[in-house]
Design a protein that fits this description.
This protein has about 130 residues and is mainly alpha-helical. The chain contains 8 helices and 2 strands, in the order H-H-H-H-H-E-E-H-H-H. It has a two-stranded antiparallel ribbon. It starts with a helix and ends with a helix.
């Protein structure tokens, strides 16, 4: 076994995916890029239970991807924000979105104008420079 093969046994791709591969996690991160910060906002248009949402948010907080901020005047007023580590996932989310937009198999979902609009929206929200 070469030194590289030995190092890859702790594959960086696998380690990264372990942080974000659980159901809902990547979508919650996307939602934070798009401005959602509160528990009920994350639930909107998703069939996710309170228990699972709480668990995913806690896992992301423990991984250093998000921070949880509680209003000192109201313990029920909690906001979640991406950390710098979380924000560094912007290119991954952008590339996933562009894979769908640009891949022939999926092109039937969007008109050319819609593809352009989606690309611009994701560039803006994810702070992508091209």
């Amino acid at each position: 076994m070469t030194k590289i093969e030995s190092a890859i046994k702790n594959c960086p791709v696998e380690l990264s995916l372990n942080l974000i591969n659980k159901k809902w996690t990547i979508l919650l991160i996307r939602d934070m890029f798009f401005g959602k910060t509160r528990f009920k906002e994350f639930k909107k248009n998703k069939d996710i239970t309170n228990k699972i949402l709480s668990k995913r948010l806690k896992e992301m907080e423990d991984a250093g991807i998000i921070t949880r901020t509680e209003n000192p005047n109201n313990a029920n007023d909690v906001k979640y924000h991406l950390t710098q580590k979380g924000k560094s996932l912007n290119n991954i989310i952008y590339d996933l979105a562009m894979f769908t937009v640009n891949t022939d198999e999926y092109n039937t979902y969007y008109t050319d104008d819609e593809k352009k609009d989606i690309k611009e929206l994701f560039k803006k929200k994810l702070d992508i420079d091209e």
